[in-house]
Amino acid sequence: MIQVKNVTKKYGNFLAVNDISFEVKDNEIVGFLGPNGAGKSTTMNMITGYIEPTSGRILVNGKEISKEPNKVKKQIGYMPENIPLYQDLTVREFINYMADLKFVKRKEKKEQVEKVLEQTGLIDVQKRTIKKLSRGYKQRVSLAGALIGNPEVLILDEPTVGLDPKQITEIRALIKKLGKKHTVILSSHILSEVSQICEKVIIINKGNILAVDTPEHLEEEFKEENSIHITVEDKENKIENVCEKIKELKSIKLLKENPDNTKQYALIANSNVDLRKEVFDIFPKNNISILELKKTEVTLEDAFLKLINEKELKEKKEKEEKEKSKREEELNNMTKEERKQAIKQDKKDKKEEFNKKWEENRKKEKEFKEEMKQQKKKEKINKKTSKKENKKGGKK
What we know:
This protein is of the alpha/beta class and 396 residues long. The chain contains 12 helices and 14 strands.
């Protein structure tokens, strides 16, 4: 149905989309997922023909949009993110107007408008002006405008943004229903939304596609070992010795040390073993206080973050290696004395950078302690207030 082949979009020196390729099949609901500024809207605007790619090809049903724009656009219904509606028109007037823009045949127009009003749940508000509608109903009107003309492809850019939980549920249910008769590309930065609605996920970040897969496969791919994450207060530093008593435990890994002297660990066990019961039994007996314990389960959010982090770490490493190589070349071209001075300066710069980071961490720790102090004060005040109120209530 939709083929995006080696598409790049540049705005001057800024690379918005970098040589991306993917396919969307008939009657698939595909989630286009990425943080704000990742390149989602740019890609969708190129598929609709609203903007042209700098290079690459986009085909819809075998027709290339740059060569046959009118034929391709006729097959697409587009719902933009910012809901651009004519506020002084009634709901019915707006849908009629959209039908005219899409050259819907006069004899089919009335029937199509009625069908779209019913599909999007707008029958009861069809005579009201758009400016008097709630945000949720405005989203529905925008979706109705995309649906009129019965396009084969629906492109929905952040369809639930700004809605309340009830409206979000209604719009999601409607999109699922539409996916039975239309091919749907849905952009979102809400991970739960994509996993609930979409059969396939395209993850994009900084203009690059990181993955194209089902939500289930992505979660499975990034599934880690059977482990639990536990935050403890261990004043005597006994945790590693205590963990040796747990037979099914493979390893223990320190994840982080918190400013309040508590520590978070990952306890990794053999497959199909639940350590929680044994941990709750052994740790308190050995004077180790458990502050938080959770079984780690990989979600689409974990997969998404891991993909982005891996990409960023790779880019950081490549940058560091490039800088190192460049610096070595510069040093090789220096005299012995110049090189000696340059190395001395490099060490000084590194020391200054370390001191700067250390000061920043110290400041954060201080702020955290102050925050905890204020929190305890508030709790104390709340307790006193609560006691006074209880006494007054008792007297009455």
